[in-house]
């Protein structure tokens, strides 16, 4: 039975618990319910279409076609260059405007959505009932992150824009009529749907071009949040066939991965994207990224579990929350640019002065720059037996997984650097030194392939990978050691061979120490 998203039948949804401001909640409830009513059929249809694409047999057909090619040397002996050669991977992409993401999160919060075979297919919780009903401290902090998102998105990007002109209402009416046609034609008329979508975009562009103020106000609503899943068909030997790859330079940071703003943040992901973000208790690195960037949570609705040859990129996410602590000590902290600065020493004596202060606070908030990041999901192997990770097959799996992820990110972004850290360590039992070397080697190879996939690669901005130690002195020492040692050899042609030799030596060293009982 194919996995699909469906809507529970409800006529009214209560969001009153997200804020203590009763006046705010009256308006929020009214608009939120109308949004769900207007958008849910379209959004559910889009999600199910994407799920179906992920399950289509054309993936196997492509795989078969690829491996039956006679001229495999094209991919084995040269770098693929853009669209001039058949790509050794396929991608599935789905996009939503920020406003649509807002509606989907409203639907998840109000338990509108359900999934067929959710438990048997390995998906975790996709609604928020568990954390809404739980009294655990972790659940309360998760809810604070989600409530903060709802309130701040509504106040900053949505509320004022919703008082629209008659022209804007007419535009919305036209769009809704066309979307209704889309729903009716969706099953059998793909070309017609594309034409109708183009008409929607044309109407929007015409209206915004004639209304510069409206264009500015709706900027964040209409921005797209993009979800891309890449499936790679090359194996380890085919990807790493070129040993003449220079080692990329890398950066070191003692703090957290997400301290690098406007970056590609590596999500130390579960194969089920989102992991335990909506569970009552768990808050590890993946949950932290999902809660600080709540727009990413909707990926749990439609992204199937990743295979070993897959990675997922989520583009253009606003950071709505900051945090302190980790796990049991995690505490939600609202982002500075959403805080309204007020001087408590000044007493407001009338409604006018209070309103003026509110306007000043709102203007202050609007002037602060929004932080936008991309999240790169790549799942490491869990090693119940710690020694197993030094077997060649497991090292090769991790090299392929991280290469796919880094290639995906570099191909779909322009200049952002990748920010990572102790990927697959912690509860997954990965060795910090081995995982560091794997990521550095994979990034170096992906970075070279990305540069040579474009004829104008000499003019491309240099891209870096940054390793954050999360204040782990042991990992910080590892990064510093290799920064001093490996960077001396960056000019040599055989840098991949060098780092492979380092991994081999590391394996031998650990095996000797394991035999002496020095390691776990």
Automatic annotation (TrEMBL):
UniProt keyword Coiled coil present: yes
GO biological process: ATP generation from poly-ADP-D-ribose; carbohydrate metabolic process; nucleotide-sugar metabolic process; regulation of DNA repair
Coiled-coil residues: 161-206
InterPro entries on file: PARG_cat_C (IPR046372), Poly_GlycHdrlase (IPR007724)
Record-annotated PARG catalytic Macro domain positions: 250-453
Statement: the UniProt record of this protein carries the keyword Coiled coil: yes
GO MF annotation: an example: poly(ADP-ribose) glycohydrolase activity
Single GO cellular component term: cytoplasm
Keywords, alphabetical: Coiled coil
Protein name stated in the entry: PARG catalytic Macro domain-containing protein
Originating organism: Paramecium octaurelia
